[in-house]
Amino acid sequence: MTASQNTFINDQIINDILEKYAKPDVAQIQEVLAKAREMKGLSLEDVAVLMGISEPKQLAELFETANHIKDTIYGKRLVMFAPLYITNLCANECTYCAFRVKNKAIVRRALNQQEIKRETEALIKQGHKRVLLVAGESYPKQGFQYVLDSVRSVYEANFNDDNIRRVNVNVAPLTLDEFKALKAEKIGTYQLFQETYHRDTYKTVHVGGKKMDYDWRVSAMHRAMEAGIDDVGIGVLFGLNDYRYEMLAMMQHIKELENVFGVGPHTISVPRMEPATGSDMSIAPPSPVSDDNFRRIVAILRCAVPYTGIIMSTRESGQMRRDTFALGVSQISAGSRTNPGGYEEEDDISGQFSLGDHRPMDEVIRDVAQMGYVPSFCTGCYRLGRTGQDFMDLAKPGAIKAHCGPNALSSFMEYLNHYASPETYKIGVELVERTIAELEGLPAERARKLVDRVNNGQSDVYC
């Protein structure tokens, strides 16, 4: 798809639906919640109905429905990852971002390949197995080759014969040939946020650089999937525009990908605007999203796109992250830094945004386990070819849990044996054994066998 061919974000349809379903009645809400429990996805009209919920009882039913869907498809696992910022150089002027080109309040830095390996080693020492490689839209003299070299460096990094097993990438929109080159580096998911789907708002907040081109950005996932990258991740930056509009526009984007490629996004991220050095807008967002509405957003997304992974970053506080586990979140970052070199050096001003959860990895893992969720470091699906349509075919009916549940337990046991503090180890082992005891049939057999193999000295085992 070329940039000029974008017709799938339709303001008129969105505005008409928002007006028609602004005040849904109880029968409409109950009908949509019942439809959501079938786990086949929701229409734009259905999403508008759920956004119109106002009564506490109905909101509680929405939250319970989202929890049921998440538990049915994904179980009690939470996939763990860390962002790795390789450069904060940027040629864009985005008024909400610390990396904007005219911002003189941060220290600019592009890591060389040895520094990237050292940062990766620091993440391996924490126990991480998944990395999200992030860069601003400007690279050193190597150009886009810098990104490709950086992916290789992350995979090559090693600490005590341990390594990163999956590199996901969040970089600026690419050409078809560049996406093909990225695919050749064996990346996992390509992730890109539209920031806002509302054209007038987009124009207002993007005032310089290539990112001013709305259509080039919104069509990036088409080029990525045409290039063979079958796992893509989307999202908006909540706070730039009315969240109700953004939710329906994002649903239009999802429906477009499903119609054209047969699969929707592998992940949806829900970043909410946080203060960023040198950005007045980030301190006073144009359309702030309350905590209550933010929880609603997560729950509605889980109901509307039941198969997708919902990502919650460390932008949010530890408490908000805890609250959203039961509402649909299935992936979280931990121990994160948002500035290049941040895992080796402390720098509180040069990150992309302020963190809400500053806890170290081990503390996050312990907290998650105490809540009864299994931290997962598994990368088995990607390496067994369960991506794109193959993954969706398993995820949509909930069958993926038979693989992901045992794999989560074995990868968590591997973390516990090599990286956990004594307190976290004790809590974690109790959770692993309790979880296996609650499983039945083939998943229980798989889990017991994989965990035993890990405890006998093997690593990186999965089914």
Task: Describe, in plain words, how this protein is organized in 3D.
- The protein has a domain at 399-455.
- The protein is 47% helix and 10% strand.
- The chain has 20 helices and 11 strands.
- The chain has helices at 11-20, 26-36, 44-51, 56-74, 113-126, 145-156, 176-184, 199-205, 214-218, 220-226, 243-261, 280-283, 291-304, 318-325, 361-370, 380-383, 388-395, 401-418, 422-438, 441-455, and strands at 77-87, 93-94, 130-135, 166-170, 190-191, 206-208, 232-235, 267-269, 309-312, 331-333, 374-376.
- Strands 1, 3, 4, 5, 7, 8, 9, 10 and 11 form a 9-stranded parallel beta sheet that branches.
- α11 links the parallel β7 (232-235) and β8 (267-269).
The coarse overall form would be globular
What integer value in Å does the Rg equal? 21 Å
Mean pLDDT figure: 92
Task: State which percent range the strand residues make up.
Answer: 5-15%
Number of helices: 20
Helix content: 40-55%
> Which oligomeric form is depicted?
single chain
Tell me the major beta sheet.
9 strands, parallel
SS-based class? alpha/beta
Low-confidence spans: none
The strand count comes to 11
Q: In angstroms, what separates the terminal alpha carbons? A: 37 Å
Condensed summary:
It comes from Mangrovibacterium diazotrophicum. The protein is α/β, with parallel strands linked by helices.
Characteristic key phrases:
463 residues, alpha/beta, nine-stranded parallel β-sheet, two-stranded antiparallel ribbon, 4Fe-4S, catalytic activity, metal-binding
Topology:
Elements: H1 11-20, H2 26-36, H3 44-51, H4 56-74, E1 77-87, E2 93-94, H5 113-126, E3 130-135, H6 145-156, E4 166-170, H7 176-184, E5 190-191, H8 199-205, E6 206-208, H9 214-218, H10 220-226, E7 232-235, H11 243-261, E8 267-269, H12 280-283, H13 291-304, E9 309-312, H14 318-325, E10 331-333, H15 361-370, E11 374-376, H16 380-383, H17 388-395, H18 401-418, H19 422-438, H20 441-455
Parallel strand pairs: 1-3, 1-10, 1-11, 3-4, 5-7, 7-8, 8-9, 9-10
Antiparallel strand pairs: 2-6
Helix pairs in contact: 1-11, 2-3, 2-4, 3-11, 3-13, 4-13, 5-6, 15-19, 18-19, 18-20
